[in-house]
Amino acid sequence: MMGRNQSVISEFFLLGLPVEPEHQNLFYALFLAMYLTTVLGNLLIIVLIQLDSHLHTPMYLFLSNLSFSDLCFSSVTMPKLLQNMLNEDPSIPYAGCLTQMYFFLFFGDLESFLLVAMAYDRYVAICFPLHYTTIMSPKLCLSLVMLSWVLTTFHAMLHTLLMARLSFCVHNVIPHFFCDMSALLKLSCSDTQVNELVIFIMGGLILVIPFLLIIMSYAQIVSSLLKVPSARSIRKTFSTCGSHLSVVSLFYGTVIGLYLCPTASNSTVKDTAMAMMYTVVTPMLNPFIYSLRNRDMKGALGRVFCKKKTLFSL
Ligand SMILES: *[C@@H]1O[C@H](CO)[C@@H](O)[C@H](O)[C@H]1NC(C)=O
């Protein structure tokens, strides 16, 4: 495992989930089912939105991007976890570990930026309904999506390059089920001060600024509702913003829970449970939150499905 100069570790070992061996199969089945649900649910949303021209509105195009990001986010960690649970070969090469970390950060941030774009879209739809189509032009939507990709590439690249500078000497067992950035920092034998500082500053910027922007959009929405309060406008706002608000609460709820309730020094179980929450549960629930209560999505399902049926019967 060690190179001649004692500073090269070529692979890491992922400790996986803290479950008893006799429960391994049960958890394997559970996570496989959750992962398949995530993949199929999000794919269904992407396909429906692409196929049904009624859904080619900014809100649904952003939603389709969010589903894509959810799909990729859980595919960064879940297949490796499932594979580890199956054949008990928990090793991951050094480069694989950094790649996993890069894409984990990339799709995690992308989700946070897309939630801001969606909040802005709801703000324009409710506060400037007459100018909605001119403000939220396809060009602006595309620019917002591109901007999210650029920012998130920069952020994930920054952390990955800083991590690549570090050397790993003796310890190579990661007490987690994926290459988590903070778990890797604890294993390093170099000075990690710069990394920690950058994580602290960028983490703050990447989480707090989007969160504040979302709060600001909703503050505007609520204040415009209060100017002319009517049961109808409140119901309308709730039906168009309810799903977005649920996803935002789920996303920031887990993130805030993770950072505001610092874990005891080696409570791996709680860390892992929280990580499970945002890598598996959140991406799985998003499609359901958006489609179960949503008349447009159900209509699209009907239209796409019936069109197929008439095509087949011709
Ligand atoms: C993402 O959003 C852009 C701009 O609205 C849209 O053109 C594109 O089709 C979306 N991508 C996906 C995968 O839904």
UniProtKB/TrEMBL annotation:
<dbReference type="InterPro" id="IPR000725">
    <property type="entry name" value="Olfact_rcpt"/>
</dbReference>
<feature type="transmembrane region" description="Helical">
    <location>
        <begin position="101"/>
        <end position="120"/>
    </location>
</feature>
<keyword id="KW-0807">Transducer</keyword>
<protein>
    <recommendedName>
        <fullName>Olfactory receptor</fullName>
    </recommendedName>
</protein>
<feature type="transmembrane region" description="Helical">
    <location>
        <begin position="140"/>
        <end position="158"/>
    </location>
</feature>
<keyword id="KW-1133">Transmembrane helix</keyword>
<keyword id="KW-0812">Transmembrane</keyword>
<keyword id="KW-0552">Olfaction</keyword>
<dbReference type="GO" id="GO:0005886">
    <property type="term" value="C:plasma membrane"/>
</dbReference>
<dbReference type="InterPro" id="IPR017452">
    <property type="entry name" value="GPCR_Rhodpsn_7TM"/>
</dbReference>
<keyword id="KW-1003">Cell membrane</keyword>
<feature type="domain" description="G-protein coupled receptors family 1 profile">
    <location>
        <begin position="41"/>
        <end position="290"/>
    </location>
</feature>
<dbReference type="Pfam" id="PF13853">
    <property type="entry name" value="7tm_4"/>
</dbReference>
<keyword id="KW-0297">G-protein coupled receptor</keyword>
<feature type="transmembrane region" description="Helical">
    <location>
        <begin position="26"/>
        <end position="48"/>
    </location>
</feature>
<keyword id="KW-0716">Sensory transduction</keyword>
<feature type="transmembrane region" description="Helical">
    <location>
        <begin position="240"/>
        <end position="260"/>
    </location>
</feature>
<comment type="function">
    <text>Putative odorant or sperm cell receptor.</text>
</comment>
<feature type="transmembrane region" description="Helical">
    <location>
        <begin position="197"/>
        <end position="219"/>
    </location>
</feature>
<dbReference type="GO" id="GO:0004930">
    <property type="term" value="F:G protein-coupled receptor activity"/>
</dbReference>
<keyword id="KW-0472">Membrane</keyword>
<comment type="similarity">
    <text>Belongs to the G-protein coupled receptor 1 family.</text>
</comment>
<dbReference type="InterPro" id="IPR000276">
    <property type="entry name" value="GPCR_Rhodpsn"/>
</dbReference>
<dbReference type="GO" id="GO:0004984">
    <property type="term" value="F:olfactory receptor activity"/>
</dbReference>
<keyword id="KW-0675">Receptor</keyword>
<feature type="transmembrane region" description="Helical">
    <location>
        <begin position="272"/>
        <end position="292"/>
    </location>
</feature>
